[in-house]
Design brief:
2 copies of one chain form a homodimer. With 335 residues, chain A is of the alpha/beta class. Chain A folds into 2 domains: 154 residues, Isopropylmalate Dehydrogenase, CATH 3.40.718.10; 150 residues, Isopropylmalate Dehydrogenase. Chain A is built from 13 helices and 11 strands. Chain A has an 11-stranded mixed beta sheet, sandwiched between helices. The two termini of chain A are 35 Å apart. At the A-B interface, helix 9 and helix 10 of A face helix 9 and helix 10 of B.
């Protein structure tokens, strides 16, 4: 399987993206990667890769890079030689079966729509992030592809999230919740109330409104919301983790007893960290486009890039986007 | 100062609301409280109160209670003898200078608008919750009074949050941030972009968009958002706290070393808990109505009720709503 990796995207590119590529090829023997980026910068970074890996890494030159502060749609349109655009064109042409980038979310979404193209019938794509909850991994969709939504958009996010959880994660009959300001029927605004009607009439395992407070407890397998809300929530989660970490570290440095206590707790904290640090493990699928397009976190290091490549590989193997297209066309999950 | 307390509101009413009333009168020598509720149920709960407190607690009978599952506006209109409505009528008539309830958020907002009345010029009220961040207390407004907003609503939340932080909390020139899916100017939807123009033209210390991830770091003194977003975020914070607590407790019970470590860390965790447990300390002011209307958390116990009464008292003493009305009328903060 050949996947395209935008090695210029993200805060730690191309050093960590290349290291991640090597790691992924070591992990997956069937994998070939097209490393799209500045060939001169990339080549030296692969020198130490084992020969068995090196032969599966193919350099594809890209002269331009889309940066974080560019208006995404404009950048994707204008920078025809950007690493992200070339990686996506390889998906569109069928040369690569999927692509991964740690670049700007907006550019990945714009590229997904403009270059890779939407699945017929899908009005807007959705970015679905797998969030660890107490008893499961929930998918929060959308986290920023579609800032404001129509009821149809929310409904299609639910359909796509349902397929993802069934086909990729292997959850039977995923429960679908609509994020709202209260569980009760009377809660929500017109958008939520109209979307609820769509959900109800479908064959989805729709469990109604879910509150923000229920997400960490694994209220639903798929939690559906507008991109604005999902984005704010996701970034808040990240920020809270960082703030708590720095606060606890500061407190501990000032307290002898706490320092001792911390030593005893390190194994437990390491386990919990591994369980909840979604940045390290997850890639965020852009659902609704004609291929496996996976966004890695902007701050990804090698392990996270490798993880995102793994997500793309699985999405291809389990025929993620084909299933969405098929079920949509057959009306299996849409009535 | 006489404040009205809806002793029937909240999960632990009237036991904890009454205990909170006693606690508040012990703490504030100048305070008198009208305890609005089922007199028969309330009276025995005050038997053990010291005489100096008992004389400052006045029973006001209310035959009805508004429950959590009633449509709020309908309940406020129909239940003319409900404890919440009577407490609010006391504010409207000037008999009480403010009121506190741990009842349904929707009913408090509806009562604030329908019974207490809006400040002239304020289109929609906003609930502003003080959120502890790394280096300050930020006010998140709105957390559910106005589910969806117009740009003017967001702007008026900012004005009211600005007054609250200056007059009540004592922050000089509070920084105002608009919650969005990215710091950059290009981020946000039409609502956010239009609101930004309002903010810019005002004399507010507007610092631009803030991301969800910046909130825990104290990005701004006042963080403005739609009620839907604020509500989801606030409940998510609560849920995360609870989920982490139960997870850590479970992990610790299974690990001997962690148990030992925890013992050493208890003093630190207690301090941090005291700092971040806003439920215990905060009351949420309903800004934009003609009086001090303070919402306590639905799960409030005595200490939290006492805290919310303290917030109401301060709001009255520092002339919170009068200042909002005055600055709005004078155009001091609105141009």
């Amino acid at each position: 399987m050949l996947l395209a990796l935008d090695v210029m995207g993200g805060d730690n590119a191309p050093l960590e993206t290349c290291a991640g590529a090597v790691m992924a090829c070591e992990r997956f023997a069937d994998l070939e990667l097209a490393l799209v980026g500045d060939t001169e910068a990339v080549r030296p970074l692969l020198e130490k890769a084992p020969a068995s890996v090196r032969t599966r890494l193919h350099l594809v030159h890209a002269e331009e890079v889309i940066t974080m502060d560019e208006p995404p749609a404009v950048a994707v349109r204008k920078k025809r030689h950007s690493s992200l655009r070339i990686a996506m064109q390889m998906v569109r042409s069928g040369e690569a079966q999927g692509c991964v980038s740690a670049g700007s979310t907006g550019a990945i979404v714009a590229g997904g729509v403009l270059v890779v193209g939407r699945i017929p019938g899908i009005e807007r794509p959705g970015l679905g992030v797998p969030l660890p909850a107490v008893d499961r991994i929930s998918m929060l969709i959308d986290i920023g592809a579609t800032v404001r939504c129509k009821p149809l958009n929310l409904y299609q996010f639910a359909l796509m999230g349902d397929v993802y959880m069934r086909k990729i994660i292997g959850v039977e009959s995923p429960s679908i919740g609509l994020l709202s300001n209260g569980q009760e029927e009377v809660k929500g605004d017109e958008l939520i109330i109209e979307a609820r009607e769509f959900f109800r009439k479908s064959r989805l395992n729709f469990i109604g409104n879910v509150e923000g407070g229920a997400i960490p407890f694994g209220a639903a397998d798929v939690v559906v919301c507008e991109g604005l809300t999902g984005n704010i929530l996701l970034k808040f989660i990240e920020g809270t983790g960082e703030a708590m970490y720095s606060l606890v570290r500061e407190e501990i440095s000032r307290r002898f007893l706490a320092k001792v206590g911390m030593l005893f707790m390190i194994p437990m904290l390491k386990d919990m960290w591994a369980r909840f640090n979604y940045e390290e493990t997850g890639g965020t699928p852009l659902l609704g486009v004609n291929g496996a397009v996976i966004k890695a976190h902007g701050r990804s290091r090698a392990r996270a890039i490798c993880g995102a490549v793994g997500v793309a590989r699985e999405f291809v193997m389990k025929r993620g986007f084909e299933t969405i297209a098929q079920e949509l066309a057959e009306g299996v999950i849409r009535e």
